[in-house]
Task: structure prediction
Amino acid sequence: MENSQKIQLKKCIPEKLQTTLLREALLGDRASVQDPHHEKIITVTTNGSIHSPKFPHTYPRNTVLVWRLVALDENVWIQLTFDERFGLEDPEDDICKYDFVEVEEPSDGTVLGRWCGSSTVPSRQISKGNQIRIRFVSDEYFPSEPGFCIHYTLLMPHHTEAPSPSLLPPSALPLDVLNNAVAGFSTVEDLIRYLEPERWQLDLEDLYRPTWQLLGKAYIHGRKSRVVDLNLLKEEARLYSCTPRNFSVLLREELKRTDTIFWPLCLLVKRCGGNCACCQQSCNECQCVPTKVTKKYHEVLQLKPRIGVRGLHKSLTDVPLEHHEECDCVCKRNTEG
Result:
């Protein structure tokens, strides 16, 4: 009779709800795992890493792993940095219920964070003392890939009391320091991800959201200019004569905007350069100068500090740069005597 009642009860519960209840029951058994035999103690003397089984491939189901990192020196902290390759089973209602990785402060049992899914890489974590605990749980359903990998390093406390520029958020860095950091990125996406790791996708969408100006000046004016084709010139002329050539200019210096950071930091422009052979007896100095100058617009990413507000204002803007289309040698006459 008892078994038949269970069968009738099971029929009354929707299949999806049955699965949820079963998984939560399993989770309840695993989330509170504190038994010493579940915990692997790792003595930290240098940099290292831990990862989910089979990383970067699909991790196994029905797994509970606990690591406790312990530094021999009691006067150091442990810093955890998650690998960019991160992916666990997605959350339900924005809650990591099933598969997750969790970081805990052993001294007081404080959970520093629990993460799952694959949309965001967890942020860097720092222990309060010389120990930190990491727990990984997977249930019997839907394992994902690649799992996770956590790199750990030792950190001296006095290094974080007075944060160095590398530990400050990008928006808090001095503009000159941030300008040097920005120079190392090759795409706008990588740059925005560095500036706003928590909301970079939203910022990227805002940046490219269409406005009333469907075609920027860089698109329109860029097709009206005529550029000298140096390949049509003789080799001697290309190497030695006064002609428009590619020059790399730093935008902050060119535009005299030291209050702003531009990406890319520099752009190629056509500027007059080369040798002149016009010096004669009455010529004191000969210079290669532009005889035809045009203004072209270049679309760049502009970063400016917000007045009175923390963070950076980001926008795509067109900056005007002078291009020399025609050049000539001009002699400065000797007027002495």
Summary: Residues 30-162 form a domain with the Jelly Rolls fold (CATH 2.60.120.290). The chain has a mean pLDDT of 76.
